[in-house]
Design brief:
The protein is an alpha+beta fold and about 180 residues long. It has a domain of about 110 residues. The protein has two helices and ten strands, in the order H-E-E-E-H-E-E-E-E-E-E-E. The longest helix has 20 residues. About 20% of the residues have low confidence.
């Protein structure tokens, strides 16, 4: 009888500790066409110093083909394509054009695309995915310059561009300018 009560007590303790130590949240899928706010939970048990979350708003953007750009904007982006980084340009219609460059590659098969653009506490955060050719793929044997251009009206604060590995892209607006 003692063994049975010990086993029941042990099972109840294990269940209690397991149930108290794990938590999960299910979030509804977001609609990328409308801005959303999300924030970390406030800790209501901490009295007068609650933990505040980070506010994130989705920013609407569109991919732009290089052929669709006005000549002056196209020339600015074409001049930077051999460098790794990004540049931004605001036109007279208050659109921001942001070009993100992977830099010079020795072969074809490389690509870069924007995954999402967000306003994160007053900074415009852009995440890009860079891909390369698979080892067995036959690719062009020539230098290539993968880049992408997006357009938005909703840039806030400084622009921060990172790839999916967390590596930050530098603003290369000043690279290549003549010194007066």
């Amino acid at each position: 009888m003692r063994k049975i009560s010990k086993v029941i007590l042990l099972a109840a303790s294990f269940t209690l500790f397991t149930a108290c130590s794990s938590s999960s949240k299910v979030m509804a899928p977001s609609d990328s066409k409308s801005p959303e706010k999300s924030s970390a939970e406030n800790n209501s048990n901490s009295g007068s110093n609650p933990i505040k979350g980070i506010t994130v708003n989705k920013i609407k953007y569109e991919d732009v083909k290089i052929q669709e750009l006005k000549p002056n904007i196209k020339n600015k982006f074409e001049a930077k394509k051999s460098y790794k980084g990004f540049i931004s340009y605001k036109d007279e219609d208050d659109y921001w054009y942001i070009g993100i460059f992977s830099g010079e590659k020795k072969t074809g098969g490389y690509n870069i695309k924007v995954l999402h653009v967000e306003d994160i506490e007053g900074e415009t955060g852009i995440v890009v995915e860079e891909t390369g050719p698979k080892p067995s793929t036959i690719v062009t044997q020539a230098f290539t310059y993968p880049y992408t251009v997006i357009r938005t009206k909703d840039v806030v604060g400084p622009i921060i561009v990172k790839n999916t590995l967390g590596q930050e892209f530098k603003d290369i607006s000043d690279i290549g300018k003549a010194i007066d």
